[in-house]
Amino acid sequence: MNRRGPGLIGAAARTAVIAGTASAVTGRVQQHQQNRFAQQEAEQYAAQQPMPPAPQPAAPPAAPGDDVVGQLERLAALKQQGILTEAEFEAQKARLLAG
């Protein structure tokens, strides 16, 4: 073996290892940047999308008899509070029961 240095083959091998390592590192950096840019684009896209409206709770449909009973109860409460007279209460009650 030559005592002066690694020789031409050793230098070429060392250069190949360094170049390969640099290529691998560069490739990983580029992949990382591409992933980061893709994530930023996805976040920007999501931020631009309108939010769907919140679902409104559905009110249960009132049975026809329940509605009339509820209205009669409200009328009776208004009569007890003195807001409706006896005649007004009877007129409204007759209208509800006829309908």
From TrEMBL:
Residue ranges, compositional bias (Low complexity): 38-49
Residue ranges, annotated region (Disordered): 29-67
Record's compositionally biased regions (Pro residues): 50-63
Residues covered by the SHOCT domain: 71-97
Name of the featured protein: SHOCT domain-containing protein
Organism per entry: Streptomyces drozdowiczii
